[in-house]
Amino acid sequence: MSRQVFMLPDLGEGLTNAELVNWLVNVGDEIRVDQPVAEVETAKSLVEVPSPYAGTVATLHGSAGDVIDVGKPLISVDGAGAPAADAYRTEERAGAKPPAVELAGPGRTDSPADGSADAGSGNVLIGYGTPGGLGSARRTRRPKAGGPPRGAGAPAPAAAASGPDRAPLVVSPLVRKLARDGGLRLEQIAGSGPDGLVRRRDVEAALAAGAPASAPVSAPGPGPAAAAGGTDARTGLGIAARTPLRGVRKAVAEAMSRSRTEIPEATVWVDVDATALVELRRDLKERDPENTPGLLAFIARFVLAGLARFPELNSRIEDGEIVRFDGVNLGFAAQTDRGLLVPSIRGADRLNARGLDAEIRRLTAVARDGKASPADLTSGTFTLNNYGVFGVDGSAAIINYPEAAILGVGRIIDRPWVAHGQLAVRKVAELVLVFDHRICDGGTAGGFLRYVADAIENPAAVLADL
After folding, report:
1. Are the C-beta atoms of residues 457 and 272 closer than 8 Å to each other?
2. Which of 46, 66, 117, 203 gives 20 to 30 Å between its CA and that of 406?
3. CA within 13 Å, CB half, 15
4. Is residue 61 part of a domain?
5. Is residue 299 part of a domain?
6. How high is the pLDDT of residue 160?
7. What is the distance between the alpha carbons of residues 283 and 262, in angstroms, rounded to a whole number?
8. Which among 220, 271, 276 is positioned nearest to 244, based on CA atoms?
9. pLDDT exceeds 90 at position 308
10. Residue 187: which of 234, 152, 233, 225 has the closest Cα?
11. CA end-to-end span of the chain, whole Å?
């Protein structure tokens, strides 16, 4: 019986490893070409990895939480391999690096368009591809009712389903974080959802019941960096924990370090009277509660109009040249369980406030679900950061490398303000623009910031021209 070993493919964007989040199959399962076998988390997103082989799962190389390098074994499959993988297996035997893989996006299908039994998807594994595969892919997200749970070992009896070796059946990153912060291990929590799916209320119930917290699981990796304990030589304090810098936090750290190292940034700021904008949105909401954009969408629309007048800020420096773009991909900061992510609205300059609001909501949900693609998170040309949601007034932000500028918006609060020669209480916010001083000077940055501020203070006049 032949055995094929599927190596973790190149996930793109220069990523060299991924954290194994969940197995979607068990040892002994029959799988088809293109069937997702594992969920992995990279520095960019949470993705499903489909198998290029059909057959019986022989070995699962790793457990939930393990970090697997690109080109290392992910899963071994016994039985007839997929013909479409022949080219890859030849390269593998020759010791070549596995070719790059394109993980299909929303357009991916799980069965042949013509319904034939011998057609592969053709768009899941580009490079050692699946055209002419062994049939349609059947997505196996959860085990069948009464069947064995997903795990990293052989199927266990039902009585052992709650043992420490069972991979937890959980989908939501929020549930994982809640359990991790509470010191609980998900595999020790009985799920109330279908087939034992662990839900948020299950974790909250376990925390309320005072479930014993197991010892923290050390992250993979050799040496003291993976374990707590000991005394810090510099401070004399005990070390409570060591957390490897990886995944999205590592990617953020590298990008921020590069930004501060390579970009000579400058900062300008202004207080703005947002009373008229708040009142305008309130009036619109009273007339059409379901379709009124949020304040951030209106500000985004003003930012895009400002970039049309000051296009220098919608550019980047590359190979000694200033590259200016025909159009704007507007990035916005979104806080998620995996850290701060910056999805971008492609072609944002072509959208009105309602369109921007819809995209902000959609991309925020995608990012928080861990489903944002690398392209979603790396295609921005200018970033808007609403840190007012954290209850702060201002921030000297770091430019989202390799962009040229970032605009921050603080909270809108009641403040004393002189309006029409009289002291009054107005809705005031602070705008902070951080820009690359190599690309433009203070006149351009100040002109852009003043334009956005004037638009917020007189929104009806500006919106009439958009």
Report:
1. yes
2. 46
3. 30
4. yes
5. yes
6. 36
7. 45
8. 220
9. yes
10. 152
11. 67
Domain range for 108 is 1-155
CA distance 118 to 54: 12
pLDDT range class, residue 18, cuts 50, 70, 90? confident
Give the mean model confidence (pLDDT) for residues 172-180.
68
CA distance to 19, 138, 335, per residue, from 187 (Å): 18, 26, 27
Assigned token pair, 126: 């580009």
Rg value, the chain, Cα: 26
In the structure, what pLDDT confidence band is assigned to residue 189 with cuts at 50, 70 and 90? confident
- Pick from 70, 74, 67: which is nearest to 51 by CA? 74
Instruction: Say yes or no: 29 and 139 in one domain.
Output: yes
Please give the residue that has the higher pLDDT: either 303 or 53: 303
Q: Contact, 329 vs 344, CB < 8 A?
A: yes
**φ, ψ for residue 245, nearest 5 deg:** -85, 105
CB 245 within 8 A of CB 257: no
**H-type helices in 288-352, by residue range?**
295-309
The domain tally of the chain equals 3
Tokens standing for residue 47: 């993705």
456 and 363 part of one domain: yes
Identify the active-site residue in 437, 444, 450, 454: 437
Cα angle 3, 16, 223; round to 5:
95
Q: Give the rounded distance of the alpha carbon of 205 from its chain centre.
A: 28
- Range in 125-139, 282-296, 381-395 the model is least confident about: 125-139
On the question of pLDDT at 380 being above 90, the answer is yes
Report which of 153, 137, 149 is spatially closest to residue 194, judged by C-alpha positions.
Answer: 149
Tokens for 369?
A: 């679900």
437 classed as catalytic: yes
Q: Is the domain of 144 the same as that of 260?
A: no
Report the CATH number at residue 185. 4.10.320.10
d(CA 54, CA 81): 6
Rounded to whole angstroms, what are the CA distances from 120 to 33, 112, 114, 179?
Answer: 7, 6, 10, 39
The residue whose two tokens read 């949470």 is 46
Question: Which neighbouring-strand residues pair with 273?
Answer: 428
Q: Which residues share a beta bridge with 383?
A: 331, 406
